[in-house]
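Hi W.,

Here's what went into the run:
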Amino acid sequence: MTEQVIAGTDLSRLRELNSLTVVRALRDQPPTTVTELASVTGLSRPAVDVIAQGLVSSGWATVVEPGGSSTVGRPARRYRFRATAGHVIGVDVGGHKILVLLADLDGNVVHTARRSVAADADPASRLAALDEILAACLRDAGKTASDIWAVTVGVTGPVDASGKTTLFTPLPGWQTVDLATHLSDRFTCPVIVENDCKLAALAERWRGTARDANDIVFLLAGMRMGAGLIIDGVLRRGFGGAAGEIGALKAVKWLTAPSHLQRCPGVPPTVGPDDAAAWVFNAARDGNRDARTAVNRYVKDVAIGTAALVLALDPQVVVFGGGFSRSADLVLEPLHRELRKLVLRMPEVRASTLGADSVALGALRLALNEVDQRLFSVGLSAPVAPRR
Amino acid sequence: MTEQVIAGTDLSRLRELNSLTVVRALRDQPPTTVTELASVTGLSRPAVDVIAQGLVSSGWATVVEPGGSSTVGRPARRYRFRATAGHVIGVDVGGHKILVLLADLDGNVVHTARRSVAADADPASRLAALDEILAACLRDAGKTASDIWAVTVGVTGPVDASGKTTLFTPLPGWQTVDLATHLSDRFTCPVIVENDCKLAALAERWRGTARDANDIVFLLAGMRMGAGLIIDGVLRRGFGGAAGEIGALKAVKWLTAPSHLQRCPGVPPTVGPDDAAAWVFNAARDGNRDARTAVNRYVKDVAIGTAALVLALDPQVVVFGGGFSRSADLVLEPLHRELRKLVLRMPEVRASTLGADSVALGALRLALNEVDQRLFSVGLSAPVAPRR
DNA sequence: CAAATATTGCTATGGAGTTTACAAAGTACG
DNA sequence: CGTACTTTGTAAACTCCATAGCAATATTTG
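Here's what came out:
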């Protein structure tokens, strides 16, 4: 049982609650009339009227004066959530690239900045590249750091509560990097660092293939396998931020799974190690026997770790994402078949639809969650960038 | 992101919310004065006064007139939550026994009934025994079925949303039993059927060794291995009720783990298969070499499945419970050692303190949760047994 | 016995939402 | 083109809830 806050409510808090209710009803909606809001919220029309005007004067909403009216009766004034009152940033710091998304409070991406980074870049130069691209993104979007309400950065490896990746990370030298502190010098708003698999899982539920599901196992499949878990609609971090790291168990074959692709016979020597997998998938699609065998072995190994997660959590959906999701057409069917042999209750298996942007999108979503949480706990004053 | 209910609040709902706040403050507390309640809830003293009197007149609270006062000033009237306004029942239907606990709304057990059942009893006779013991428990406690606000029954095997164990259960013939419907004929209140491991996990967090933790992996260790998961303080059922069934994965050695104990060389033929494990644990404690080896092999196998759960969920605590938890002194140290080799972040490992009652206790807790949920969503009218 | 302290009961005040009523601004139709 | 109808916007009256402040009461302490 969750510990409930024991706190009484007075009338000003009542107004605040109802204002938040109206804001919720307004968000992610086309401009809405007072009557519609009244029926959605269950409040009376005059009450909503007062609240809506209050939201306009405090800056949370804007008025849309009636244009060409289409129905009978007096045309209604409409109210719209002012999503541009604040902005958030989501970043994906990957091995090869850094991707920055800047979005408004409705999650509409207003600017994108991408830049490639050498896979073996040392932490200092990677951080420098991050600083540069962040500055460029802000500049090009016509914003300053103080316009940003929350920043989330996705990195590989489990992230602890302080935002560090001390347990393990494939980025060279990254164990000692304190990314959260580094960015806190550049932003006054909350800065969150989170594991890339977890963020991609969030994205898949927000705008991807699992929008309908509350219990999701997300697989980030690439040269490294990872997983992100959403349980009861909430991203699961684990007590130390290491949830979903089933790949560390040797009995589960995730560590070695991608090597079936890399070591597949027949890969031309001209193809680098990073592109071997793509070559094998293409060859398998063309009917190459060795390639098909390699893919099947790969899927068999992936299925074992996936089965462990499915048995542990009994999700509604398993989403196959990450770099290899471009080859989901080859993977999904055998993955489904292998999984069926191993689990008690078979979940749906779907392919990711978001591709390479999923981590940065998930970072956006987490930043928006942070903003929402403040909004709905602290209350509605004037819309300004929150400080830590 | 959880979907929030969009509903406005008017003044009567405000009063209801504040009444619930006072009830929450009153529960699990010694009798409390109005002034104390006012400071805890943040409401004004007159407001609390009115609310408290309302609770008394509706039957949710009782007045304790001031007795010998210990402080200066006028002695204050005190209010107490009327836990006896309703009662709940928690049942453990095990292979060998049925245990029934009857408790008030504070979870105080007011009556216990236990009865052994043959392990190979057919479903009909097991259900008959259940009916009998339930009737006897109600009679001896001086209650009728209509006094009961919620009933929860724990059974082995994964339980789906409708309360059936269709996927798998070790109880003979139990696949086709519809326990929820069976009991619904005997009670008008909500009836919940749930997996025994999950219930034991709840109990351990409520009154056991994991009261401080919000992220728990509970192991029900006996001749069958099972697990119950509490994540973010909430019991995790999984989409189809099959969460925690990691034992079904062969790569994880839970199915065969107990056989190391049963097949240990040196077990006297006079010892039956059900008591072999106890004999081996005792022998190991006395220094028997074969027995120690058997225990170590057992623990090694248990550790693999546990590691899978720990890696998947990254819990704060692993609780070793179930029948074998009596031998936790032999298991805990090697389990800790083996686990440390396999996981990324080491959780605490603790032994269960509840013993054989844990499943029935957890059933009580779930029944109380059901009552609470109704209370805090439907609102406070007069305290009467809820109907489905 | 009086002073100090704390609780209880009562009244006035103000804030928030609802209901009711009515004017204003459109459309539909003869 | 004018009337009937529909819906919106706004104001006033009313109800309900919590608060603040004050008087009355009960008990301890010196």
